[in-house]
Write a structure and sequence with these properties.
With about 50 residues, the chain is an all-alpha fold. The relative contact order is 0.22. The chain has helices at about 1-15, 20-25, 30-40, 45. Helix 1 (about 1-15) crosses helix 2. Helix content is about 65%, strand content about 0%. The chain has one domain. The protein contains 4 helices and no strands.
Length: about 50
């Protein structure tokens, strides 16, 4: 649950930019994307309308 919340928050802070969210989380983009997939997180569902 922590990991999922952390990823969502990073995406929100970085306006849905996966590369910037990954860099801020000290992960490479591919690893960050894999975590998103693991937790079924989609950028469009994280960002406010």
């Amino acid at each position: 649950q922590f990991e999922k919340s952390y990823i969502k928050r990073a995406l929100l802070i970085h306006d849905g930019n996966i590369s910037r969210a990954a860099r801020a989380s000290q992960k490479n983009r591919r690893a960050f994307w894999e975590l998103m997939r693991k937790h079924k997180i989609e950028v469009q569902n994280v960002l406010p309308e």
